Amino acid sequence: MTTTLGVRAQQKEKTRRALIDAAFSQLSADKSFSSLSLREVSREAGIAPTSFYRHFSDMNELGLTMVDEAGLTLRQLMRQARERIASGGSVIQTSVATFMEFIENNSNVFRLLLRERSGTSAAFRSAVYRENQHFIAELSDYLCRANGTSLENARIEADALVTIVFNAGAEALDLDNEKRAELAIRTKKQLRLVAKGAMLLNRKS
Amino acid sequence: MTTTLGVRAQQKEKTRRALIDAAFSQLSADKSFSSLSLREVSREAGIAPTSFYRHFSDMNELGLTMVDEAGLTLRQLMRQARERIASGGSVIQTSVATFMEFIENNSNVFRLLLRERSGTSAAFRSAVYRENQHFIAELSDYLCRANGTSLENARIEADALVTIVFNAGAEALDLDNEKRAELAIRTKKQLRLVAKGAMLLNRKS
DNA sequence: AAAATCAGCGTACACTTGTAAGCTTAAATA
DNA sequence: TATTTAAGCTTACAAGTGTACGCTGATTTT
């Protein structure tokens, strides 16, 4: 059921979005979420500092909202990748390419996840952790079904794969296109390493 | 040649140390380097805020010094691990155990590296990157010698191994002892996955 | 039509921050 | 011994921060 919003609620939603967008747009290589101030964000969103509180009790609350949105964006991306794979692409090639595209097009979104994963707020850290687990769970399912691995082993493999890809993404942020291409090649080799190792160990047991 | 320091230079060195120690001791799960202020650090070190400038031109300069020290600590740790391995320990078991001990005993030092790796200062990021490359280079050498792998393949393998261990360390920070033990087991399995995969792929070529 | 709600505003306050300027005083140098 | 050097201090200031308080005016509810 989608409730039709009144004029007032619509406007409120709009400002809320403006705040979120303002915060995202202020993120950069040189500016992390924790270095944003309530006043800066409000200014960028075009409202008075004190009006901020009509939408979020805290910068923290805004931040958590942003992490959720970032996770959502990332999962949507995964779905796209799976579609491409289903229609005949190589798993590793497609996954890495998709991820790298994501980082190129949404670097600030990725930076948020990357930084808050080891940030100073436990709530943030566990929010990012949850998103990561989502990611791993979906990949585990896939591996289970595709390779007939036990779920436990698939979890371990998936975790390693995601770790490597995520890390490569982090590294890519500071590289130019040429170096990124090299990184992508190396990353694919590493993923194959893990996949081969998993195959081998699964046959044994 | 070790120059004997005059009384004055000795005192200066002492305060410099006090500043570095103060900064390290203020780091915690809830407080990152970038959230430290020059005044806080100076206060903790027992000097006036303006005296800070007699030692560092900047909080940035202090931070880079800290990253270097952290990297040094980590490399010392690696040497210990190699000694233990040389005297008959399992490579993977020993490495993971040593690393986990490091994180337990020096969590704030590790946190510094972890956070600044994706922080807002390019100088910091590349400093941490350098330390990481050191780490990987030493491991590559080891793998080369131990397994007769080509240096290129060893680099790729070492990179994957370090990524996985480093990531596990990051995860360990938020876990209790029980969960940490589980994590250690999982991490070892993942390292074996990579090692097996590398063996397999090296035989082929 | 009257009353209640509430998003957004302006003002205000108490803090913290980085850092400039100039002084003191003990150590180093000549 | 006389002079220079420099680590550390005090004072001072401008800039930025989070947020409390109370008002306004349009929308919503009664």
Précis, in short:
The structure is a homodimer of 205-residue chains. By secondary structure, chain A is mostly helical.
- Biggest sheet record of chain A: none
CATH overall fold name of the largest domain in chain A: Tetracycline Repressor, domain 2
The DSSP helix count of chain A reads 8
**CATH top level assignment of the largest domain in chain A:** Mainly Alpha
How do the SSEs of chain A run, as a string of H and E? HHHHHHHH
Percent of residues in helices of chain A: over 70%
Number of domains of chain A: 2
Oligomeric state of shown chains: homodimer
Number of strand elements of chain A: 0
Largest interface: A-B, 40 and 40 residues
Mean pLDDT of chain A: 93
* Low-pLDDT residue spans of chain A: none
| Helix/strand/pairing category of chain A | mainly alpha
Distance from first to last alpha carbon of chain A: 50 Å
CATH superfamily name of the largest domain in chain A? Tetracycline Repressor, domain 2
Principal-axes geometry of chain A comes out as elongated
Strand content of chain A: under 5%
CATH architecture of the largest domain in chain A: Orthogonal Bundle
Radius of gyration over C-alpha positions of chain A, nearest whole angstrom = 20 Å
